[in-house]
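Service request form, structural biology core

Requester: graduate student, group of Dr. S.
Request type: structure prediction, single chain
Budget code: on file
Notes: please return the result as structure tokens.

Sequence provided:
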Amino acid sequence: MRVDVLVVGAGAAGLSCSIEAARGGASVLLVEKDTRLGGTLHLSGGHLAAGGTARQAERGIEDSPAAHRADVLRISGGTARADLVEIVTEHAPATVEWLAGRGFDFAAETPRIVYGHEPYEIPRTVYGVDEGLSILTVLQDELARVRAESDLEVWTGAMVTELLVGAADGQDAVTGAHVQRGGEETEVLAGAVVLATGGYGADPELFAELEGAPLVSAAARTSTGDGLHLGLAVGAALQGAGTYLPTFGGLPDPVSPGRANWHDRQRLTSERPPWEIYVDRSGRRWVAEDEPSIDEKERALAGVPEQTFWTVFDDVALEAATGSLQIVVGKEPSEVRAMANTRPGVHAASDLRELADLAGIDPDGLCSTVRAYNEAVAAGKDPEHGRTHLPAPIARGPFYALRNHAITLVTFQGLDIDSDCAVRDGSGAVIGDLYAVGEVIGAGATCGNSFCSGMLLTPALTLGRLLGARLARARPG
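Core staff response, request fulfilled:
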């Protein structure tokens, strides 16, 4: 089988690339190892960011690609790829307008400033009423239209097992791939191969090798680093080393060890003023819980042993945790009480020493820390960490401890690419006819050592569309 473009992975990047390449006249084969399309769009909040959109203008918000770019560079501390950030921010408004023109169902409150990570200075984040699924709906509808009019074939349940390398224009290049589907292996020859396979957030061994940290994953189970393995096998280099940043996550999954349930996450950010304290396994506090900078909290978490900690509070704090002040998203106090000592990672006891034993925290350390914290509340000053929000002591049982761990939704290292999304080898030279878009290039490329709202999904769609159109123009004939 021969095609102009072989796209590996049918998430946001692969779908958008395939659509634009086929619309431009290229013959395209899109292969996806899952039985459904969409990749991480099934889990994603679907956040996009663009400066200078029509939706912003309608709401009197002044913004521009340059302002967006400046915000990304500020939040990332200049650790993101400036060339890629410039391309993405310049074309991001067109990506949002492209979705809008195809019936994208915006959430009414957007654009807005999102405070789940370090915030932008201007409301520019948008998402759909069904989060990532709102984007998938548009992409699937567009895919169906393009397939009806163009030479675009889609294989699901298809796994690329090897990239083919041969001579092209007098030099070595990737010429196609072996694709395993339905128990049979097919050799697919292609003028260009695009890796859009996502990250490695579901591959503990690769994660440990690249990041040197334990993995607790909330990523898609298909995010097993396939594109990195394929690229490395033909000499590709990686980018993004040292940009890994942990994020606060959800409660332990009740069924699968090593995973966290993102939908049962605790409100550990600036979404609510904390009544609880955060302690490590020794029972010590490790950050000012009311620190307004999410970035600072996440960096502090990176230094916590095993990146594991517990939020500790009493029944007074739980009783106050209603509505937008909920400690666990979507759970009122009675529901949290019902999970205690039943759901993994949720512990309750009548006294602190018993609580520590149940949770796996050092009892002496926890008792000492709570005593010091209560003294800080009484004095109105926290000499250890400088916390200023000190609403009440932790004094009335039952007492609670919720286990938390740095979790991985996205991964930061990925295949090194140039500004045209061509994959590069260790010397910086382009590997002929091999390209990469989406999380396979690593979140560090467009977020640096930080989380920038919308700068994962927006690059996937934007770079995917630009690459698809470019490959269509470059096809022979």
